[in-house]
Amino acid sequence: MKLPAIGMVALLSTGCGHALVDYSPMPDMNRAQAERIIEQVFLEDYDQNQRPDAVLFDDDYILLADGLVTHGTSVGGATLIGSGALMTGSSKYITKQAGLRIYYNSLGRSTLHTKRARNNRFAILIRNREGAHIRRVSTTNEQRAKQFLDALEYMRTHSS
After folding, report:
1. How far, in Å, CA of 13 to CA of 102, rounded?
2. 10 Å Cβ neighbour count for 20?
3. What are the strands, taking DSSP E only, across 14-140?
4. Average per-residue pLDDT in the chain?
5. Which of 143, 154, 122, 156 lies closest to 32, judged by CA?
6. Please, what is the Cα angle at 17 between 100 and 127, to 5 degrees?
7. 99 is a domain residue
8. Quick check: is 29 in a domain?
């Protein structure tokens, strides 16, 4: 009785999720084109929960910015002088972009998947050199998804 139930679960689970699309990136572009494609695909991600506020490029990484974060400390003091007071203070604040950095030299082979239950739904899984998943990007355009993989490969192979 258990064996048919296990077989049924295995059969049902293979029909769900995403199927791998066989694609090998061909980075025939320059850096400006690669940046435009990467930025557009990230900002048009149809999953609003993972869409960044901005995409910034550095010589060594892509920053998927989710806003600014400020951390700081303040110290103050006052001393009475007659009928007045002398106040002193010092503050130090650091503001940085919050988000995810994807380092070019850590990029591995990213993969393209199609959603089995729906047409025109694609997921790009960005992976590091060890094969671990770094980020997923969702799009409705297969050609744009392949261009995105080409652009990532360009940035990986042409990084400093």
Report:
1. 32
2. 10
3. 18-21, 54-57, 61-81, 84-103, 111-115, 122-127, 133-139
4. 83
5. 154
6. 30
7. no
8. yes
Phi, psi of 7 (to 5 degrees): -60, -40
Residue with tokens 């400390």: 73
Q: Are 104 and 149 in contact (CB under 8 A)?
A: no
> Please, what sign has the CA dihedral across residues 47, 53, 54, 60?
negative
Tokens 């989710």 sit at which residue? 66
Asked if residue 49 is part of any domain, the answer here is yes
Residue 13 lies in a domain: no
Q: Are strands 111-115 and 18-21 parallel, antiparallel or unpaired?
A: antiparallel
Based on the structure, what is the number of domains in the chain? 1
- Given a contact cutoff of 8 angstroms between Cβ atoms, the answer to whether 158 and 31 are in contact is yes
For the whole model, what pTM was predicted? 0.72
10-19, 71-80, 94-103 — most confident range: 94-103
Which residues constitute the domain of residue 52? Answer: 18-67+104-157
Question: CB 100: neighbour CB atoms within 10 A?
Answer: 15
Distance, CA of 83 to CA of 60 (rounded, Å): 58
Distance between CA atoms of residues 140 and 80, nearest Å: 68
